Amino acid sequence: MSTEREAISTFIARWQGVTASELSTSQSFVIELCDLLGVPRPHATPAQDYMFERPVTFRHGDGSSSAGRIDCYRHGAFIWESKKLKLSGQTAATGQTSKGFDDALLRARAQAESYARALPAAEGRPPFLAVVDVGHVIELYAEFSRSGATYTPFPDPRSHRIALADLHHDKVRARLRSLWLDPQSLDPARASAEVTREVAAELALLATSLEAAGHAPQAVAAFLTRCLFSMFAEDMALLPERSFKELLQRHRNDPATLHKMLRVLWADMDRGGFSAALARDVLRFNGKLFKGSAADGYVLPLSREQIDGLLRAAQANWREVEPAIFGTLLERALAPDERHALGAHYTPRAYVERLVMPTVVQPLREDWANAQAAALLLASEGKLDEARAEVRRFHHQLCSTRVLDPACGSGNFLYVTLEHLKRLEGEVLNQLQAFGQDTDTVRQDKLGFAGETVTLQQLRGIEINPRAAALAELVLWIGYLQWHIRSFGNASVAEPVIHDYGNIECRDAVLAYDRIEYVMDAHGKAVTRWDGVHVKTHPVTGESVPDEAFQVAQERYVNPRKAAWPKVDFIVGNPPFIGASTLRRALGEGYADALRGTWHDVPESADFVMHWWHTAAQQVARGEARRFGLITTNSLPQAFNRRVVQAALLGRMGEPPIHLAYAIADHPWVDSSDGAAVRISMTVGA
User: CB-based contacts of 338: which residues, under 8 Å, 6+ apart?
Assistant: First the structure.
């Protein structure tokens, strides 16, 4: 160990403050860093998979091309862009980086991104960019989907910049070692996915057990949701350490007392203050998660075995739960008719990002790049007040941006959007601080105590399934609190901890109506139909066919009309996959008649999803939204759906034409309800 420490100290002493030119130092720096980390050095190879001066060809919009060279490249790992800046990276007095230094590294990052785009498509883009001022800092930027999306500071805007002296830290060296040897292992979603699967499986067993005891699925879902948020709050230090686990353990052999104590605890969490259940003060959580503590079914009676199941779930590291998939798995765990699919695949986060990035994030990052460039120019001219004002103007735009998922399910698209908005906000506030904004003021802005900040209020959702809508709110709050606490510590959480913003609406996104009436036969008996869900295996063909034993009442919709959507800047989501030929069977004669009688501008031959597509396209065409990005079935290019798309592209909707800013005709997907592999199309309209 002492030998390793000596080697680190020698390396730092040798390189710190080196003043030689970039060309003469960058390759030596990489080679010696490789030796220090115990990873392979770059080598000359015909395959060009790991080398200095990797050649690339830039293709320009006018058809011309030009040559470039990447300072250091490792296939499937990183692009390394080295500089030897003639600027003082840190001032001795303040420890803050200079404006010129930040500007130079910003240009180096843009250069590295251009190299990533210039790599051959078959080779793919590496998950990391490393932007290096030799002998001073290494900045890391990541994009784990490798789909061409925007690289963002890794692991976050506070700690993506590694100073040379930071090599003394074991975690920093381990991170850099993984950059070479297993970069995808640094993807936080990987470890989180395993924790999330384990938690969902345990909750599914509990839900099954509670339903078998005679409790309604909705009551079970609400009860377990309160339990799991308490587990999350405990691990995030929003509740006193181990307090929820100890409450379960203390009353494990006395379930009746535990029943009373859980009611007391959650009522206390709702209003805040001293909790008799924990004999300690608790924060005021508010929101609507813990409302109605006096109602029957608010707390369900538990057996000792069920308490043990809660204890096992509480042992998980709730800090690592991945919100992007948690909602889907939890919905399967809590829904009796979807529990069979718990072990099936779920939609990978990278797939969600593949649509969120071009729809929402890239336009905002283009706006930020323009604002940042203007601010840096003003700062270079000594106009710091104007530079700060430019950054604050964009921050206001970011905090005013509204995003809608009009079929939000359990919230994975909205959560991924939220995380990217918070990442971008972190960069904006860091830039403000670099311009000499008072540190305390910037910190207050980051914590949301003063001024503006990105909040869940900006994310709007429409979801017809009540359980999924409630889970979407839960997922967003878990993700939001995770982000704030990881970025700024527990001091970032003000009371009330959660709010009832009402941003997730539980309703139909396509059809509005006054009420639903049941269709009666001549004898006054309700007419029924197959429920559109349950199937059985045909005894002769072996195919899945409707199970007519499962019936629901036939319905009539009174005063049907098109549903209104809230006014937003961006629309993104994954509407339901129901083909035109199966719509009546799946949704009923009454719904189909109401839909066809209302939506005259969408052909009856079009899939159900095209009602979402048409509405989103209209909002963009009218200038009411900037972009929309939707998942549709991969039959989008076929004639019966293409007519809707062509009408929007040619301006035949009575509105100006739109264009497709991004489109993938055939892409793998995973159906969120049962985990089945399907093929889909992605389109982004602008």
Answer: 331, 332, 673, 674
Decide: residue 65, CB within 10 A, 0-12 exposed, 13-18 middle, 19+ buried.
Answer: exposed
Over the stretch 137-196, which tens digit does the pLDDT of each residue have?
Answer: 999 999 887 765 668 788 877 788 999 999 999 999 999 999 999 998 888 777 666 667
Q: Residues 500-523, buried b or exposed e (16+ Cβ, 10 A)?
A: ebebbbbebbbbbbeeeeeeeeee
d(CA 62, CA 354): 27
Pairing status of strand 515-518 against strand 570-573: unpaired
Is pTM, for the whole model, over 0.70?
yes
In angstroms, rounded to a whole number, what is the distance separating the alpha carbons of residues 346 and 327?
10
- What are the pLDDT digits (tens) for 91-121? 433 345 566 677 788 888 888 988 998 898 7
Tell me the C-alpha to C-alpha distance, in Å, between residue 155 and each of 75, 165, 413.
21, 18, 21
Residue spans of the domains in the chain: they are 2-186, 189-321, 349-505, 520-553, 575-685
Tokens for 327? 């909602």
Q: How far is CA 216 from CA 204, 311, 336, 472, in A?
A: 14, 22, 10, 21
The CATH number given to 575-685 is 3.30.110
Q: Structure tokens of 285? A: 């959580």
Q: How many CA atoms lie within 13 A of 511 on its CB side?
A: 23
No. of helices (H) and no. of strands (E), the chain? 20, 24
As a whole number, mean pLDDT of residues 335-355 equals 70
Q: Is 225 within 8 Å of 309 (Cβ atoms)?
A: no
Q: Nearest to residue 412, comparing CAs of 460, 365, 467, 347?
A: 347
